[in-house]
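Here is a complete protein record:
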Amino acid sequence: MIEIVKNNSLKRRARIAGVFYLLVILFGSSSEYIRSIVIVEGNVTQTVANILSSEFLFRIGVLSDFVMIVCYILLAVVLHSIFTKYNRTLSLLFLLFTLVSSVLLCVSTFYQFSAILLLTNEFIAWSQLDLHTHVMFSLTKHLYMYFTAQIFFGLWLLPLGYLVWKSRKFPSIIGILLMLSCLGHLIEFLIYFLDPAYKSLSYPGLMVAMIGEFSFCLWLLIKGVKDD
């Protein structure tokens, strides 16, 4: 895969990376939005009712997550081919963080999908209370696994941001924002695990992350990168 990517010019690879980054943002945002309207925090009955009444939408959200994960891996592979000449170790490091994050996200997404499997499996003979308990436990495992993946989803941005800054192929501010984005994701993870009641404290960091990643995505798509 990496050899196929390397056969393209540097500018073309940058544009390909931009497309994958945009797909990660679009599919990731779509799945987040679907979860926000289907899963009602603290209300098991309403959440189960929403899943059953919007089963197709819920499945679309799960599918969006899987597509996002695939695009995320491909994005990292293409970026690795661009930055490995500047620092092979750091390029391999952000690729490794991406793979670890992707595995955790796959497990997280499976936990989410297991909720619909439990609700639509006619061979399960649990009482309604037991069924609802297992569904919410699956969704809770999904949530905690998702935030665990945030550790590595944040960490990959640190070496990537440094390489963006060091390569001088992109505006320095984008590299700095990407490195700060790492802190934004890590702070979100820490706050959620320590006390979710203070999750609003992570919003400024996540805003920086959103600006940094979207700026990098747009630069890749519009400007690309100069060939050596």
About this structure: The CA atoms of residues 6 and 81 lie 6 Å apart.
